[in-house]
Write a structure and sequence with these properties.
Blueprint (H helix, E strand, L loop, with lengths): L5 H14 L4 H37 L4 E6 L5 E5 L4 E4 L13 E3 L4 E4 L2 E6 L12 E8 L2 E7 L7 E2 L22 E6 L5 E6 L5 E5 L5 E4 L9 E4 L4 E8 L2 E5 L5 E3 L8 E6 L7 E10 L2 E12 L5 H6 L3 E3 L2 E3 L24 E5 L4 E4 L3 E2 L6 E5 L7 E4 L6 E2 L5 E4 L2 E4 L3 E5 L4 E8 L2 E4 L2 E5 L7 E9 L2 E4 L14 E3 L3 E9 L2 E4 L6 E3 L2 E3 L4 E7 L2 E3 L1 E3 L4 E5 L4 E3 L2 E4 L8 E7 L10 H4 L2 E4 L7 E5 L22 E5 L4 E4 L10
């Protein structure tokens, strides 16, 4: 309960006093006194923090004073070379009952109330010191204690005395912390401003230099950094006044600025072509022997406009697979983008122009020694690839299948087929939009003619099932379905959205089925399922290793009397279980309807279980775990931290 909360007690006081027989003038007098007390306390806290800011200026020694004015109350308002102003009050900040000295130890740490902290006041090895900021917090009406922050008011801790107990403001509302600055005034010649610290008596001199300014007008910061895009760079207004400017920039960064003592100027910054490059840009301006300094922390954010350009400049990742001219050298279509109306007929690396629509009307088989890589070139405008007819789909062979940033439309039986006899290292779909009339993947493998996918990754995709026609219709739309003979060694299905085509439709399906003796390690995490019912079973496989099915959201707004029971897991004979049930219990479900609502079960009745009597349900939320539900756009944004998909 912070100092601003005191105002709530004004309202309470008004209500209580109005119930009594107090006269109107008594009531007004009590309320005015309470308001005055709050205002006085806030003013003292503000003055204390201004003093701390001034001490920071003195310690850093990288700013000068452009001008100052002396106020009627004896305080000074200083305009610094970085454009900031500080109102400085010398001496004690109000009457004090408990003297709390703010000073600096011989080791360079802050000392608050005689207790040395671990927080640095002065810079060490290039790491700047911190500036304590104080506030008053209400313990009960009329009783307040001090808190201090050492991280820019992100976190707070109590100020403790040498006995380890709270330091309170006095009952009269006056401050319990003496002003850290004992005296502050310009010197006799008027060219320096002198401040003396309380307690230690240490004196600092800050030059007063008119016409010397070095101020970076900070743009919006993220975690304390100015985020600069790699493709265009950025600019921000600055105020530079003086004779010359020196610029210090991180390696690989281009920074330009010049002095114009009459007109506004800007700082221009271009980062290296890499994501997450960090550093500090420092500007130094001099006038005679005096220097003013300002700096800003910067971080690059790689802005990709063409995946093909990334391929040619070192590569990019699809899942955990690096795709570049060395790892996947066969660039199809003579190295050109596939235009609107084009098609794909063979393996190789295919880049499709942003927004283009192409049609594939035959089986696209990954054959020979070349992988099939399909990528939409423009990250912000994926192309559409439509498979038409029953015999039109992607067929696994012996080489990898990698797809990124493509909208796939399939109105036939399935989009991807694991053909018997195939043996693939990796099948990866990432950042794709997929519209399906039926299944996503299927297999015709048998025990005598098996099919193997060693590593299946399905990441950051949106899958829209088109099969449902109405709320009374619930077609079976399996995601990955296979019979005996199919092996999937590792399956990572994470951060995806699976949903029916509208809010009044639903689909059901056996979500991931690998039947047989082969072992599967699956990771099904942080997915959002909307009106997709895991029925008759969700995951049906021989689960082994460090498998996990958690942090998923299951959402339904359909009232139905059939197929309204969901079974998340059917662990086949021979399955093993993780050491902690958290691996499959940390999911949430939500029914937007009460009548004929979906029942959400963790295990199917035929499943192996961690114990014989295990019969847990997926926990149901009382409120929707989704803050945005937009069926038309396919946007389902999680409200529950750590659960569901977070697709950018």
């Amino acid at each position: 309960m912070y100092i601003m909360k005191i105002y709530k007690y004004i309202g309470v006081a008004l209500m209580v006093l109005s119930l009594g027989a107090c006269k109107t003038d008594d009531l007004e007098r009590d309320i005015d006194a309470l308001k005055d007390r709050v205002t006085a306390m806030e003013a003292k806290v503000d003055r204390l923090n201004e003093s701390m800011n001034m001490i920071r200026v003195a310690l850093d020694g990288n700013k000068t004073i452009q001008s100052y004015t002396e106020n009627e109350d004896g305080s000074y308002t200083l305009t610094l070379s970085d454009g900031n102003t500080i109102t400085l009050t010398q001496g004690k900040i109000g009457a004090t009952d408990v003297y709390q000295e703010v000073s600096i130890s011989t080791d360079g740490n802050w000392v608050i109330g005689g207790v040395e902290t671990e927080h640095r006041a002065v810079a060490v090895d290039g790491e700047p010191g911190v500036t304590p900021q104080f506030r008053l917090t209400m313990e009960s009406e009329g009783k307040y204690y001090w808190e201090v922050s050492y991280d820019g008011e992100l976190t707070w801790e109590e100020v403790k005395n040498q006995q380890g107990t709270r330091v309170y403001a006095s009952a009269s509302g006056s401050s319990s912390v003496a002003g850290p600055i004992a005296s502050a005034a310009p010197n006799a010649t008027g060219d320096k401003f002198e401040i003396t610290l309380t307690g230690s008596g240490t004196k600092y001199e800050i030059p007063i230099v008119s016409g010397l300014a070095c101020a970076i007008t900070e743009p919006a910061l993220e975690d304390g950094f100015w985020i600069v895009p790699t493709n265009a760079g950025a600019t921000t207004p600055i105020d530079l006044k003086g004779e010359a400017v020196l610029i210090s920039a991180p390696e690989g960064w281009t920074v330009t600025a010049s002095i114009d003592n009459s007109n506004p100027i800007t700082l221009s910054v271009t980062p290296p072509n890499q994501d997450g490059a960090e550093g500090i840009i420092t500007l130094q301006v001099n006038k005679g022997v005096y220097w003013a300094i300002d700096q800003i922390k910067v971080r690059s954010k790689k802005v990709i406009t063409s995946w093909k350009a990334e391929y040619e400049q070192g590569g990019f990742y699809i899942g955990d697979e690096l795709v570049n001219s060395e790892t996947y050298p066969t660039l199809a279509n003579s190295g050109n983008l596939i235009e609107n109306g084009g098609t794909i007929t063979k393996s190789g690396v295919h880049f499709i122009k942003g927004g283009a629509t192409i049609t594939i009307s035959s089986i696209l088989e990954i054959s020979g020694n070349e992988a099939l890589v399909i990528v939409g070139d423009d990250p912000n405008n994926p192309p559409t690839v439509t498979f038409t007819g029953n015999n039109s789909y992607l067929r696994a062979g012996t080489q990898n299948l990698l797809c990124k940033n493509v909208k796939f439309v399939r109105d036939g039986m399935y989009l991807f087929h694991a053909n018997k006899g195939s043996n693939v290292n990796k099948v990866i779909f990432e950042q794709c939009k997929i519209e399906l009339k039926n299944n996503f993947a299927s297999s015709n493998a048998t025990a005598s003619e098996p099919s193997v996918i060693h590593d299946f990754q399905f990441l950051k995709n949106k899958v829209k099932f088109l099969g449902a026609l109405s709320s009374g219709d619930i077609p079976a739309c399996n995601f990955f379905y296979s019979t005996g003979g199919q092996t999937v060694g590792n399956a990572n299905i994470s951060n995806n959205i699976f949903y029916s085509q509208s809010e009044d439709t639903r689909v059901r399906g056996q979500f991931f089925v690998v039947i047989g003796t082969a072992e599967t390690t699956i990771k099904l995490e942080n997915n959002t399922f909307c009106n997709y019912i895991q029925n008759s079973q969700g995951i049906k496989a021989k689960l082994t290793g460090d498998w996990s099915v958690r942090y998923n959201i299951f959402y339904s707004n359909i009232s139905a009397t059939t197929y309204n029971t969901s079974y998340l897991i059917c662990a086949l004979e021979g399955s093993t279980f993780p050491a902690s049930n958290d691996a499959f219990e940390s999911n949430v479900a939500y029914n937007a309807v009460e009548e004929n609502a979906t029942a959400w079960n963790v295990f199917h009745g035929d499943s192996m279980k961690p114990s014989g009597d295990y019969n847990a349900k997926i926990p149901q939320e009382e409120e929707s775990p989704l803050q945005i539900v937009d069926w038309e756009k396919g946007e389902f944004v999680s409200l529950k931290a750590g659960y569901g998909a977070t697709i950018e």
